[in-house]
Structures are given as C-alpha cells and as structure tokens.
Amino acid sequence: MDFVIPSLLVLSVLLVFYFARPRIPNRINKAFLTLIITDIAAIVTDLLSTYADNHYRDFSVPLLSVLNMAFFVAFFARVLAFFRLTMKLPKVGASGFTRNKLLSYTVFLVCEVMVVTSPFTGAVYTADAAGYHRGPLYWILPACSFFYLALGIFQLVRYRKKVRRRDRDRKSVV
Fold it and tell me: 132: alpha, beta or left, given left = phi > 0 and alpha = psi -120 to 50?
C-alpha cells in the first residue's frame, strides 16, 4: 500500500497533463491514454479488493469475490494495454503484427476466462467465509506480465529500425 497511493497520484497528474495539453488523437496517444486509464482502474480495484480482503468479515462472499475479480480483470487489461502501446511504436503495416496480435489476445482471453470463472473453479482465487485465498493458478498473474513484457521487447527489437528516430531518441515518455 505504500506505493499504491503515490502511484495513483502520479497517474492522476499524468492524466491531467495529458488532457491539459493539446494532442493529436493518433494511435500512440490513444494507446497511452488507454494505458493510463487501465492502470488507474487496476490501482483503484487493487485498493478496493485489498481493503475487502483485509476486512472480509464486513463483506459478503459474493462482493468479496467480485471485488477481487475486478482487480484481476483490470490487472490483465493493464498488461495488455502496455503491450499494445509497445506495438504502436514501430511503423509496421498491420500484416507485420497479425500473429503477435492473435497471440496476445489469445493469452489475454485465456487469462480473463480463468479469472472470471474462478468463483466457480477456484483456479486463480477463491473467496469464502474465511476470506480471500490464492488458487493453484495464481501464478498466471506474473507469468502473463512477463509474457507481455517479453513479447513487447521482442517487438521493439525486431522492428527497431521502423521505430521513428524521434521516439527512439526520447529521454522520457511524457
């Protein structure tokens, strides 16, 4: 929790600056905005689910389950949004990314289905009268994150010559 509140504040400031400055609605700006919004959603749902998990006696089991599900759904949406932003940097035609898009959305859908069905299967998590518990497939959270990070790095290395010089030479994102 020590990093969650400051992260939320930093993202909120970024969002304010994003809307305060004139922007052309191009593909990179839209992907960046999507990333910021999904990151804020992940942080807010993390706060809510963590609070509910720590005070599980004050919450019904279905509400506890829904709050945790909302966090996991937002978590996977955030890593996909990050990957999509890295895919927007190289100037490559749509056919260059078709396989990676298919792979990335397949992994995303599999992870989301495992989370959404967890209240019934207990795969990623369970919530009961004793509170929140990790499921046997909880490891998919870091695995999915590393998958998208590796695939994004692979894309940037593979198409490094197609990344505009201006984007390669930038010292910061903002």
Answer: beta
